[in-house]
Amino acid sequence: MRMYDIIAKKRDGKELTTEEINFFIEGYTKGDIPDYQVSALMMAIYFQKMNKKETLDLTKAMVNSGDTIDLSKIDGIKVDKHSTGGVGDTTTLILAPLVAAAGVPVAKMSGRGLGHTGGTIDKLESFEGFCVNLRIEQFIENVNRIKISLGGQTGNLTPADKKLYSLRDVTATVDNLSLIASSIMSKKISSGADAIVLDVKTGSGAFMKDLDSSFHLAQEMVDIGIGMNKDTMAVITDMDQPLGFAVGNILEVKEAIDTLNGNGPDDLTELCLTLGSHMLVLGKQAKDVQEAKTILQDIISSKKGIDKLKEWVRIQGGDEKFVDDPNLFPIPKFITPISSSYEGYINRIHADLIGIASLILGAGRETKESPIDLSVGIVLHKKIGDFIKKGEKIATIYANSIDKQAQAESMIIDAYDIIKEKVYKKPLIKGIITQNDSIRY
Ligand code: URA
Ligand code: CA
Fold it and tell me: What CATH number should be reported for the domain whose range is 331-419?
């Protein structure tokens, strides 16, 4: 088999066989096939696309390119959740204790990653002493004991995806539904989940900006999951403005604690109840979404969710008193409210700009080596549809540098679009895709 022929075949719009896909993934992972040939193939795929079978074959080949985590020693159906990412998205810290308290085992491997804020690991490490370097035996024992554990990524998972994603990033070939879907799903499947709930974001702060492509991506991912015998469903959710009010690490942890105490922002609470309900259904802890939602609401009001967070923090060596008293978390030097120069309704909040402002403040990483400041970030006081008076507080900046604060301030002001006409709030949940159904609300 020759790489040249595979490139030419896809260039001419033909379907690649399973063997051809395995050949290029294996060869590329080993370093036998050079970047320039794989770049050409990626561009051919970008223009000619791949069908469902090719997409499934590509995902399988990427999963097989490295290790897969074996979670079979954990009792019960392991349901994982994946979000395609957005601004101020703290769902894992809320969802994991909620569904664990309902009996669904949560065995999560997380990376640090790049972005506007740190990842789940960084956020958990804001609890002094929290340790993510668990041996696999300890990780599994914790899940069996308290239904929840989070570890740093171990093993060599999907090396093919790591190479391909970096190559696509510099060759303008990221933006293809089959390539995105197989990239995300190969990572999920190699981490050992039995069932997967996907949160596919749509809107200005999301990877997919328009609703149609978000539905298509969700469908591709669900088809891959089902094709690999994993019970998979997707919820398509709005990311036209940041989720909740807080953007930043400790700020989001505090917001997660509020939400588990029943005092969270409406949108964040609704999203967690929705995703959590589907996780309970896939995990066979509820017969349908309605029953699941009632179970989760009860877990919040009876404090079983917040107690589960404390148990989780404690078992991984962290200091649980931060959960009882979030005022103990460190705060940055400068806490500065921004007031509005206009009166009217909030029409838009450019989530991207809020994300960049958060990055500038130091809450996220620009490169893998960048340090991260857990205490800084932004708290929004107004969301789309809210009315604001002139001089009223629109947001508060948490900063450790006056320079960065000033930069963030002008970006936050630019992010807000305020108009005279009344603006109505938009629904958060845009639709769901399951094995047999695709529903748009
Ligand atoms: N995220 C991924 O992990 N892979 C892609 O291809 C795009 C987004
Ligand atoms: Ca938030």
Answer: 3.90.1170.30
Q: Which candidate, 223, 221, 265, places its Cα nearest to that of 81?
A: 221
Whose C-alpha lies nearest to ligand 1, atom 6? Answer: 180
Task: Kindly write down the DSSP assignment for every residue of 172-190, as one continuous string.
Answer: T----HHHHHHHHHHHHHH
The response to whether residue 167 sits with its C-beta less than 6 Å from ligand 1 reads: no
CA distance linking residue 104 with residue 77, whole number of Å:
7
Sequence-ordered strand ranges (E) for 141-204: 148-152, 195-202
Environment class of 76 (CB within 10 Å of its CB; exposed 0-12, middle 13-18, buried 19+)? middle
Flag the least confident range among 81-85, 289-293, 305-309, 387-391: 81-85
Nearest ligand to the CA of 220 is: 1
CATH architecture of 3-48: Up-down Bundle (1.20)
pLDDT in tens, 256-291: 999 999 999 999 999 999 999 999 999 999 999 999
Q: Which letter does DSSP use for residue 426 in this model?
A: P
Give which of 349, 334, 381, 375 is closest to 117, Cα–Cα: 375
